[in-house]
Design brief:
Layout: H1 20-23, H2 26-30, H3 43-46, H4 50-96, H5 105-129, H6 134-141, H7 143-153, H8 157-173, H9 182-208, H10 213-234, H11 241-266, H12 271-278, H13 281-293, H14 299-327
């Protein structure tokens, strides 16, 4: 996805780590890599309005994750990740047709690390949702970008938001994660760490490659990394027509469709507003888990998710306020 509000090839908020980390899921961070033609029509999707497009993209991502969970008994967690990355990579290659020549060794090194971070983020997250409900998994995962935001901002007020997040984690754990599989919790937290790395290298890749070329190439790297793992776990199951079709559905819902929707939204929506909207993802994930996977949350777990959402929104708004204050001219 792209945004004309950012310089070509630069992730929205890349110069301000507190905005992009809280905002960006895989699709959000990728938004800065491609630039849409000036004046391109929004088409049918554009009639939803930018806020509706962002929310639709978030719903697509989380319902895609719910579909992935339902597919895991057929293909396994590694198999589902493989299908998602391979199909998404093929689509991005066809659409973007990235240029392979003219890049330096540093450019390729950056895009390879970006692809590794992408693969790790997806693989660890899918291992998490194979063990714990979708809502808590996304809530724990978002702590990675939130921590990056707090550390990068170096403002005392962000300790308050960190406190909100830690309180949410404590509630979610019930004092020890007795209700959640410890391995699933560990995978979700590790996925959050990879998400933070993904955001950092997303911005670097966006500055080195034009439009969505870097994103497409990074997806290829991620797909190639996971292909042997998916084949080892699932083998011929990956080419079963039903499994392949469902895997393609996961790729479309979790990557292709959100990229398109948020591309259109970010052409008319400020990145900070986009960040706040994306902070709602844990709640959307909880809803998707309940509606598709029958994963009901307790009142305590719901309160925990609300605290983490509040922390994410607060961190974004704090950073936005800081940037506005810096932009104000000094009074002589």
């Amino acid at each position: 996805m792209s945004t004309p509000r950012a310089d070509a090839g630069v992730t929205p908020g890349a110069s301000s780590p507190a905005v992009a980390p809280v905002a960006a899921r895989e699709a959000a961070s990728a938004a800065g890599h491609a630039s849409a033609p000036e004046g391109a029509p929004g088409g049918r999707f554009g009639s939803l309005g930018p806020v509706g497009l962002v929310l639709a993209g978030g719903i697509s991502v989380q319902f895609g994750a719910a579909l992935a969970v339902s597919l895991m008994p057929r293909a396994g967690a590694l198999g589902v990740v493989t299908l998602r990355l391979v199909v998404a990579a093929v689509v991005m290659l066809v659409v973007c047709r990235p240029r392979l020549r003219g890049h330096s060794r540093a450019d390729w090194g950056t895009v390879v690390v970006f692809g590794i971070a992408m693969a790790g983020m997806n693989g660890l997250f899918y291992q998490a949702v194979d063990r714990i409900p979708l809502g808590p998994a996304v809530t724990l995962e978002v702590l990675g970008p939130l921590a990056l935001s707090v550390f990068a901002s170096r403002r005392a007020v962000n300790l308050v938001w960190a406190g909100f997040a830690l309180a949410g984690v404590f509630l979610l754990s019930g004092g020890g994660f007795d209700d959640l599989d410890p391995a699933g919790v560990a995978f979700a937290l590790a996925a959050g760490g990879m998400w933070a790395a993904y955001i950092v290298f997303s911005a670097r890749t966006g500055r080195r490659f034009p439009q969505a070329d870097g994103l497409a190439l990074a997806m290829v790297v991620g797909a190639l990394l996971f292909l042997p793992l998916g084949i080892a776990e699932s083998g011929a199951k990956l080419i079963d027509p039903t499994t392949l079709a469902l895997g393609a559905g996961v790729a479309v819902l979790s990557s292709v469709l959100p990229y398109t929707l948020e591309l259109l939204a970010l052409r008319r929506l400020p990145a900070p507003t986009f960040a706040v909207l994306m902070s709602l993802e844990p709640a959307i994930a909880a809803a998707a888990g309940f509606l598709i996977l029958d994963q009901a949350l307790s009142a305590t777990q719901s309160a925990a998710i609300a605290l983490v959402i509040a922390a994410s929104m607060g961190a974004v708004r704090t950073q936005v306020g800081r940037r506005k204050a810096k932009a104000l001219p000094e009074v002589p």
